[in-house]
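// run 5 | inverse folding | seed 20
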């Protein structure tokens, strides 16, 4: 992921999330994790870049605190192994029940060219990639792609907020 799209997502999506009480807890070149902590639970929203293709996913979950293991929604084996039980580092991957925001094709928000590749299905590649897959181009990168991607994610964030509201009230 190039610096331009990463910075734009951090700025625009980060601004949207901070307006709704979320704060950035972890960020690398590949992902960012936001928390909104309450007395009984932590609401988590994260975006992550795919390792091989030019798309990101946006997901959410809730970690319930001060409750029994069955209702906590935390995969403790995973959580304890990768985060040493530190709740300030918990992310969506540490949770059992999660929601992925719908993107361009399934749950993927593509920021490059997109192909229907023979034998591989839908494949995203960066617009300046020399190795194009064998197939048909169904979405073309343009100068406004990064901005449009951020605007689409922000436009659809209400679905995440609704999911969080519905799921936090189901256990509390």
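// decoded
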């Amino acid at each position: 992921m190039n610096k331009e799209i990463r910075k734009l997502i951090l700025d625009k999506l980060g601004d949207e999330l901070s307006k709704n009480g979320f704060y950035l807890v972890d960020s690398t070149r590949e992902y960012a994790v936001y928390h909104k902590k309450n007395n009984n639970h932590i609401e988590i929203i994260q975006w992550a870049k795919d390792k091989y293709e030019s798309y990101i996913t946006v997901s959410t979950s809730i970690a319930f605190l001060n409750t029994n293991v069955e209702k906590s929604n935390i995969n403790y084996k995973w959580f304890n192994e990768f985060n040493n039980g530190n709740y300030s580092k918990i992310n969506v991957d540490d949770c059992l029940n999660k929601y992925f925001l719908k993107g361009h094709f399934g749950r993927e928000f593509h920021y490059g060219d997109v192909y229907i590749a023979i034998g591989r299905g839908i494949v995203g590649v960066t617009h300046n990639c020399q190795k194009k897959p064998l197939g048909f181009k169904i979405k073309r990168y343009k100068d406004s792609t990064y901005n449009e991607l951020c605007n689409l994610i922000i436009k659809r964030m209400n679905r995440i907020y609704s999911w969080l509201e519905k799921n936090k009230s189901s256990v509390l």
